[in-house]
């Protein structure tokens, strides 16, 4: 049993031997990495301080509305700019292509960009007051045209078919023509021409005659009752 265990142990690879030279190289490599990290951190801190000073100068200048930074392919640098802008109360956005010409632009809150302005920068276009005015005028013209079209649709009505043609198919051409003449509107009698009316009496005469008929009918019924009032 002891011989078997010894055979297994002897067949296993022994741990590598690390000499002083290798330890020294590893220690130097670690120190180099740590130094680079410290330098990078210090570099970013200096960049942050420069960005803060640049933003402070921009805020104090009452004539400036927006501040455009140089292209920054490094995402960390752009993040720092956004952080500084937010602390200073500015609105900031990134434009351009990643890892190529991506840059940050910041605005004072009272001059915050419109959606049209942001869209122009995202498309790589310039933006100015003249362009904003032209776009506003174009939208007003389009809105006015839409209103005029809507008004025309609401006031104009085009029948799907001519009612005369429809009646010609149903009752014949001659009968449809006669019906159209009869139903011609008249100011006094509506849809029936006055010459077609058989009753020529006025409304007052008609009402008087109706009342007279009711009165005579009531008198006849009264005369027909027995003298003692029994039924």
TrEMBL record:
Q: List the gene name.
A: LOC106813044
**Ranges of compositional bias, category Basic and acidic residues:** 16-37
Using the record's annotation, list all stretches that form the R3H domain: 45-109
Q: Which UniProt keywords apply?
A: Coiled coil
Protein name, entry field: Sperm-associated antigen 7 homolog
Coiled-coil intervals in this record? 128-155
Query: Where is the stretch described as Disordered?
Result: 1-37, 211-231
Please name one Pfam family that this protein belongs to: R3H
| SMART domains attached to this UniProt entry | R3H (SM00393)
| PROSITE patterns documented for this protein | R3H
PANTHER family in UniProt = SPERM ASSOCIATED ANTIGEN 7, SPERM-ASSOCIATED ANTIGEN 7
Enumerate the SUPFAM superfamilies for this protein. Answer: R3H domain
């Amino acid at each position: 049993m002891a011989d078997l265990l010894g055979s297994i142990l002897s067949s296993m690879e022994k741990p590598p031997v690390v000499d002083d030279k290798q330890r020294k190289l590893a220690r130097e490599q670690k120190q180099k990495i740590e130094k680079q990290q410290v330098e990078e951190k210090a570099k970013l801190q200096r960049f942050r301080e420069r960005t803060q000073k640049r933003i402070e100068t921009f805020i104090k200048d009452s004539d400036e509305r927006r501040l455009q930074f140089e292209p920054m392919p490094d995402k960390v640098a752009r993040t720092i700019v956004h952080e500084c802008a937010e602390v200073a109360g500015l609105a900031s956005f990134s434009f351009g292509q990643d890892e190529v010409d991506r840059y940050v632009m910041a605005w004072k809150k009272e001059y915050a960009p419109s959606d049209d302005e942001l869209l122009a920068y995202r498309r790589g276009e310039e933006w100015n007051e003249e362009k904003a005015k032209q776009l506003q005028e174009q939208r007003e013209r389009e809105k006015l045209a839409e209103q005029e079209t809507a008004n025309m649709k609401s006031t104009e009505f085009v029948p799907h078919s001519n009612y005369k043609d429809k009646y010609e198919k149903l009752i014949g051409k001659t009968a449809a023509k006669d019906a159209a003449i009869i139903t011609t509107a008249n100011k006094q009698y509506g849809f029936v021409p006055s010459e077609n009316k058989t009753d020529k009496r006025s409304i007052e005469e008609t009402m008087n005659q109706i009342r007279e008929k009711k009165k005579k009918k009531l008198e006849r019924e009264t005369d027909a009752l027995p003298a003692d009032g029994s039924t």
